[in-house]
Design goal:
With about 575 residues, the chain is an alpha+beta fold. It is built from 16 helices and 17 strands. The longest helix is centred in the C-terminal third of the chain and has 33 residues. GO terms for molecular function: protein-transporting ATPase activity.
Length: about 575
């Protein structure tokens, strides 16, 4: 079988084409500076004072749970630079890099109490009170394995717009629950109001809403935009609206948002539209199966509310136990927004509006810290270049080229990730980039020293490039594998302050492998075909003096391997 002919020129062309495409995308985005972290730029700080909805002091476990949920909203990937901390027994502080529009949107998302609940629709414009089903169900909840129900053409649950979460719950706008058959104490009423109800009770209310609630729905009008949200108590019915101003009468809640285990979005195989996929914990899964079983195929709706506002009102085509899909005419943005609300929506504590304060903060480090970090990187780079020129002479062209390509790829990736994933560059991240210079230097030193060993054994430079590459490649992959593993462990287990360093270290390690395979090796192979290098010119860096073979020709047949 003939050996595959290497084409280093083609490899280099493909590499530079990829770099050109990357920077073309950056130019299209119009951003040539990476977003800086809190320590280098400052940003917005939100102080939130928690209250226990059931009275009494704030449980430490609930405060930590709320902190974890808010941290996921702000900094789910760990590299956006947001920081969430607790202070005292009832305060959560959130710091977000920057003060622009994106940061303000993030701040608004943080301020939301995000009480997420699942209810049944008793009345709506498409389903007058007492009717079993409506004519326009909206989106549909279905079993992921079942596919889209034939003959359905669901509309977007948000009118084709991205979900805009509601404001914090604060004031009452929901009538009290219907009176029970026997007198209840104040404690019993409070307990019932803060607890979900059985699915059978919710279904009974949905299909036979009390006359009092039907009357209130008939006279209900949606509040004006920006007004205080309605009070959303899980054990009481709810009069509310969606973002399009459609009014709903909803049953008491059957599932709390805290019962959601996982939520995501995407386009399933053999489908063309985005769907939102969700999974429940054990109790939530049981209630969800009972609820979807009760309304399956009837056209009756299952409402999802966030802070008392309807964000989706799908139907169900079958009883669903386990994972489910919410389908509709979602855009990527609306599907992502709904999935994030479902996944990170419910907080175990209340955060009243008068206990939330927002202020602009300056960088936690002096401005000269960034300058010092950049100078440190520049000095390190210059030292590497000086060493390469003195030791490898003309072969240092590949060294300098490798560092330049690695730098271009790294900077381009940081810009793209800043634009698409909210990645920020903090001082630990700068340190990770500086360490990346050493990783890149290690790679070409390994290759060149292997080449010199093979040339001392009598191989020509053209042959030595290929024989040395096999061993150098394995050594480089092993070394980079260890570096990437260290970065991965730090990223997974370290605090957010260290995640920036770990992320940048991992990024530069991956880029080093790409540069080593797609630039350093093919460029060295091209240079080995030039007489200046393969004939051992004194300035080539591969001459007999550099190899320690002063007494004989580099390609002397008396050496092992002979001339090739």
């Amino acid at each position: 079988m003939a050996r595959k002919t290497a084409r280093p020129g083609r490899t280099l062309v493909l590499l530079f084409l990829a770099i050109a495409i990357m920077f073309g995308g950056i130019a299209f985005a119009g951003s040539w500076k990476p977003e800086l972290g809190l320590d280098l730029r400052g940003g917005t700080e939100i102080s939130m004072t928690a209250e226990n909805s059931e009275g009494g002091s704030v449980p430490k476990e609930s405060l930590e749970e709320a902190k974890a949920i808010i941290d996921q909203r702000v900094n789910g990937s760990g590299v956006t630079g947001g920081r969430v901390t607790t202070e005292g027994n009832d305060v959560i502080k959130v710091s977000i890099p920057g003060t622009g529009k994106v940061q303000q949107e993030t701040a608004e998302r943080v301020r939301q109490t995000a009480k997420l609940r699942f209810r049944l629709v008793a009345c709506s414009p498409q389903k007058p009170c007492g009717n079993a089903a409506g004519s326009d169900p909206g989106s549909m909840i279905q079993d992921p394995s079942a596919g889209t129900a034939p003959g359905t053409s669901p509309r977007a649950p948000f009118g084709g717009e991205t979900v805009e979460p509601a404001a914090d719950e604060k004031t009452s706008g929901s009538p009290s629950a219907s009176p029970s058959a026997k007198p209840e104490s104040a404690d019993d009423k409070k307990k019932d109001a803060n607890s979900t109800v059985a699915v059978d009770d919710a279904v009974e209310f949905m299909r036979n809403p009390p006359a009092e609630w039907a009357t209130r729905y008939a006279s209900f009008t949606c509040p004006a935009p920006g007004s205080d949200p309605v009070e959303d108590l899980p054990g009481e019915p709810l009069l509310t609206c969606d973002d399009d101003g459609i009014p709903y009468l909803l049953t008491p809640a059957v599932i709390e948002g805290t019962e959601i285990k996982e939520a995501s979005y995407g386009i399933p195989q053999q489908q063309a539209n985005y769907v939102v996929t969700l999974d429940f914990k054990s109790e939530g899964n049981k209630a969800f199966a009972e609820t979807t079983g009760a309304i399956a195929g009837t056209g009756e709706q299952f409402a999802i509310t966030l802070d008392g506002k309807v964000i989706s009102a799908p139907t169900a085509d079958s009883r669903i136990s386990g994972g489910a899909q919410i389908s509709g005419d979602f855009t990527q943005e609306s599907a992502a927004a709904l999935a994030n609300n479902l996944k990170y929506g419910s907080l175990p504590l209340d955060f009243p509006e008068d206990g939330i304060q927002t202020k602009v903060i300056g960088p936690s480090l002096a401005g000269n810290q960034l300058t010092a970090g950049l100078w440190a990187g520049l000095v390190g780079l210059i030292l590497v270049v000086i060493f390469s020129v003195l030791y490898y002479r003309a072969m240092s062209i590949v060294v300098i080229g490798s560092l330049a390509v690695a730098g271009a790829l790294t900077y381009g990736m940081i810009l793209l990730l800043s634009e698409t994933a909210g990645v920020t560059l903090d001082l630990p991240g700068v340190a990770g980039l500086i360490v990346g210079i050493g990783i890149t230097a290690d790679s070409f030193i390994i290759l060149y020293e292997r080449m010199r060993d093979d040339m001392r054994e009598g191989r020509s430079m053209r042959v030595a490039v290929d024989t040395a590459w096999v061993r150098a490649r394995n050594t480089c992959l092993a070394s980079d594998g260890v570096s990437f593993l260290a970065a991965f462990v730090l990223y997974v287990f370290a605090t957010n302050e260290v995640k920036g360093f770990a992320f940048m270290l991992g990024l530069t390690t991956i880029i080093d492998v790409l540069v080593f395979f797609w630039f350093t090796h093919p460029m060295t192979k091209l240079m080995a075909n030039l007489g200046f290098f393969n004939k051992g010119h004194v300035l080539s860096g591969m001459d007999k003096r550099a190899l320690g073979t002063d007494g004989q020709s580099v390609n002397s047949p008396s050496l092992v391997g002979g001339k090739a």
